[in-house]
UniProtKB/TrEMBL annotation, chains A, B:
The lineage of its organism: Bacteria, Bacillati, Bacillota, Clostridia, Eubacteriales. It is found in: Cell membrane; Endomembrane system. Its main location: membrane. The record marks 462 as: Determinant of potassium dependence. The chain crosses the membrane at residues 6-27, 58-77, 89-109, 130-156, 162-179, 235-253, 259-280, 292-314, 320-342, 363-392, 404-424, 463-484, 496-514, 567-587, 593-610, 658-679. The keyword Phosphoprotein does not apply. GO terms for biological process: sodium ion transport. It comes from Ruminococcus bovis. Its cofactor is Mg(2+). Keywords: Cell membrane, Hydrolase, Ion transport, Magnesium, Membrane, Potassium, Sodium, Sodium transport, Translocase, Transmembrane, Transmembrane helix, Transport. This is Putative K(+)-stimulated pyrophosphate-energized sodium pump.
Amino acid sequence: MLSTLTYLSAIGGVVALIYAIILAVRINKMESGTERMKEIAQSINEGAKAFLFSEYKILVIFVATVFVVISVCGIITKSDVLNYRTALAFLIGAILSTLAGYCGMSVATKANVRTANAAKEKGMNSALSTAFSGGAVMGMCVSGLGLLGVCLIYAITGDDNILFGFSLGASSIALFARVGGGIYTKAADVGADLVGKVEAGIPEDDPRNPATIADNVGDNVGDVAGMGADLFESYAGSLISAISLGVLAFSGSSSWKYAVFPCLLSAIGLISSIIGTLFVRGKDGKNPQKALNTGTYVASILVVISAILLSYFMLGTFRFAIAIIAGLLVGLLIGTITEMYTSDKFPFVKKIAKQSETGSATTIISGIAVGMQSTLIPSILIGVGIFVAYFVTNGTGADGTSGIYGIALAAVGMLSTTGITVAVDAYGPIADNAGGIAEMSNLPDEVREITDSLDSVGNTTAAIGKGFAIGSAALTALALFFTFAQKVNLATIDIMNYKVVIGLLVGGMLPFLFSSLTMDSVSKAAQSMIEEVRRQFRTIPGILEGKSKPDYKNCVAISTHAALRQMILPGILAIVSPIIIGVLLGAEALGGMLGGSLTTGVLLAIFMSNSGGAWDNAKKYIEGGHHGGKGSPSHKAAVVGDTVGDPFKDTSGPSINILIKLMTIVSLVFAPLFGNGIIG
Amino acid sequence: MLSTLTYLSAIGGVVALIYAIILAVRINKMESGTERMKEIAQSINEGAKAFLFSEYKILVIFVATVFVVISVCGIITKSDVLNYRTALAFLIGAILSTLAGYCGMSVATKANVRTANAAKEKGMNSALSTAFSGGAVMGMCVSGLGLLGVCLIYAITGDDNILFGFSLGASSIALFARVGGGIYTKAADVGADLVGKVEAGIPEDDPRNPATIADNVGDNVGDVAGMGADLFESYAGSLISAISLGVLAFSGSSSWKYAVFPCLLSAIGLISSIIGTLFVRGKDGKNPQKALNTGTYVASILVVISAILLSYFMLGTFRFAIAIIAGLLVGLLIGTITEMYTSDKFPFVKKIAKQSETGSATTIISGIAVGMQSTLIPSILIGVGIFVAYFVTNGTGADGTSGIYGIALAAVGMLSTTGITVAVDAYGPIADNAGGIAEMSNLPDEVREITDSLDSVGNTTAAIGKGFAIGSAALTALALFFTFAQKVNLATIDIMNYKVVIGLLVGGMLPFLFSSLTMDSVSKAAQSMIEEVRRQFRTIPGILEGKSKPDYKNCVAISTHAALRQMILPGILAIVSPIIIGVLLGAEALGGMLGGSLTTGVLLAIFMSNSGGAWDNAKKYIEGGHHGGKGSPSHKAAVVGDTVGDPFKDTSGPSINILIKLMTIVSLVFAPLFGNGIIG
């Protein structure tokens, strides 16, 4: 029965993948427009793949190393968690996450030009639907492959311990995709803007700028593939922790039901997401945001209804449904709050725009103040979510553990609609790219107007998506953290223990250090890009007159290598820190460290993402004609804010999601190595 | 024996106060220079007192309210900690802290003009010694009154519980002085600069600027009185927690020794500080920094020797001396690290200056990256300090508690040289003011050169002092936190408990929110100031030609009221948050909240202070002729960094010290109100 129902859940993943294939084929069949458009799209596609293949070269070495390390540790420790089967699961997790990213991005880079062409030939509705279909492929690949992988491994082996290997694999890819991609996208962006716009005085997305293609590649690499890998990790991690805690919390013959419940729920969520995507249809003269919201709401309502039925008929109580719904609601509300702090329809962004009148310093200060203030409601929301999920489920099984199972269910609930959430999120960069292609191909202004209006909605969905990614990373990391504590049989993680306090402080420091490193990485990678663009302007004759073609490929290659090289130090920090603390001070101190990094990590990520988003939209608000409009001193000040916000919101902030999840899963997998610590 | 030795310790405080009086009388006898100089000094003195008296008006109401609340709660709960005696101790703590601030600031505002005059009449050495003597009065008042108050209360009552009232009193004053003063000083600074320098184009400290006096008052209000109250709180808090934990950790007839040990050690530290100040003598052609360092090192070495002897002969082991020395060393090292990150002799500030070449956005990003990175070593240092202090002392008494006593001793050790640390720190604003007076009185350039070189040293000592203030606040808050946990008889504060996790997250968020509020407060208060300066320029005829005098007093009054009004919201947040969490979720969740706010608070304070300090010195480095020098585009970018850094380093950063200590002591005093929480 266990394996039957788990296989059944896996079928949900298969359905999603079939749906993804249908959408991909349909997109592929669409017209891509003029020769010029095709050429540009081809360059972006090739650039994105060039990044991925460079990344894969390092990935292969990395994955092989970790595979060997886990296997060797397994031989030494003879542990249930750490063995060659875990290593295999790790491999599968890494491969599936890579596959999801590759397929999603391939389709996204095809959908962009077709979106531009649809805008040109058929108008807004068709463009919206094309861009969204492209995003939906990513969404279906992420959740389909995630669900399929976890359920198949669990159905075949019936062993929840080796699933952590799968989660570690997903986390490793996310590290490369989100951190490396985040560095890439901002380095290319800064390089393109600084030399092109500021030094040479040519407009954004101008084909004479050698970094233009790299800039557009960056949108796909960072915002599509990076975000997808981030959510793949959260999706798999929360599901796995729920399975594991379900096994731990409930004894007796029906224990398996609690492990299968989250799988079935995820499958239902995935089907609900597919149904939701069918409701995303643009209407002429209507805001595309409405169409996207409708899809999300339909999927959410379907999950709520199914959760209630499933919880009652399968587990005999509504309690587990409440935990699921709590998570789902918290996710939706965090998205809404994020929008509140980063959209110009609300007073916060308007305040920053107003402060731009007195110069860039006041713009920066008010943006930082807004970002810091924006931590208030999300942290209380997460707190309330934890409270409700624990409170309603505790006592249904083992005391304490069943409540923790409820928290993991809340994470599963929040992520159940990942399919459509990723679709909405990935829609943004596709629309953005479509605009870039329209600009570079000199398409008529009406086309650019359509893509601009799609893009402006994309900015909002991107902000909401970031909020959702942070919220889900927080709940996932928390669920994994509890699983860690259970698996290493810690009676307590007591802040009154001096080692735990040390762990808390050091753990709290890591997100600050990590953010500092990723910001430095962007600066350094951007520097390489700036030099290359300057070199091309200097050495290629006639490039600025549009008479000769810039060498786009070299720009892509340079920022690829710079980004991947700059990723190494923060990556090592994330993987090695928990092992050092675990070995030195023991498992309980490691628990403190994870608690500390989770706390400051979530807050810092919210602060940085929202400051960045708010600055971005304050600039756009001014460009819309307020406080002097484009070119005014206010606008100049706002551009400074936006430039500071870029690494905040697109590199450092999102990278923290990876840090907190990766450190927790590393701790979980390597837990057998940690005793009481070799010192103290 | 207990009371005899405690009285003996109190005598150390009396000696310090006598020394302070001698210094004050000596300063008072010195010449204050020309009529113009006297007039300006008089205005600063009056302005500073005007701020203090306005503050006192609110303080009286606040203190009276808390006094009544504690007394009433005492009647209801019939608790050992919460009763009318605690309320009395609260009153004494508040009065003594106020007294220390008032006396120290009065002398500082007299020493500034005499420093300017000494520079004019006698040269560098005499000016250095005058400025330092002024600072020393503050140092002696802070530690003398702190030691005297704590020891007398303890000697008379023999009750360590009511001492927490004293600590709460000190914390309350610190809230007003550090947060209110921090808002005042930056509002005045921004107001003076923006309208004077930018809009009217007149130089800094120009007497035609109506905000000039307010700006100079701000140095005293924020950097002298605010910093003094902050360290008074740490000094008293750490001593009190050591006394209390000494009583708890050691049973038997010699238990009293462990309570008296920190008192005696503080008395020795105070005498050592006095001896240290005698070693601060300028030599012609030598860097004044050396003289200041010598004083600090002499005092530290004396404390180390005394700690070893006292620990061995009084408590029969060297172990407690090691804890003391660990704290002292961590304090000195954090100061050194702070200097490393904020002085232009090291690569970090140089890097920011270099980044200024590419505009203000890169200046901001690199400054934030440097500040975030600067959290690494201090948090590890504090961690090592905690480890050593706990490890060597645990097992000497009750298991666990004796180790915690060791951590409190480390805090006492770090703060034992507060006398000279405050002296060095308060020297900076006095030298800064002396420069301002020299400028406003049109003294010759040679005089300004001397005050400038004193001031530049003052910037370094201010940065070190800030690092020390944060480090000591962290250790003090930690010691109080452990005392809280012991006093409410918590068996554990377990992060695996869902309520503790909620507490951790909400507590972690509070420093972000608090910083956001204080930054907003500066903006709002600065706005009032800007409007007033503009109004005076507009309505007072001949003001810009120097023909008629600006209304300095009105500027002082306006920024005083704005600062105090803007202080209310963050102040309420600090006091009410722990009570709400304690009542709603109970004492253990409150423990989690304190742990969370301690973690993010310390890190955020280090980040903000060091980013601010680094930007400030990057600007000065450029002004020194690098990267294009004064007036270059690099300089303009660096000015933006400095302006963002101002509220970072002088308002929000230091205010967090108060937040984390105040929340802990509020929890400790009101602990009898919290049970298991009314929900969950």
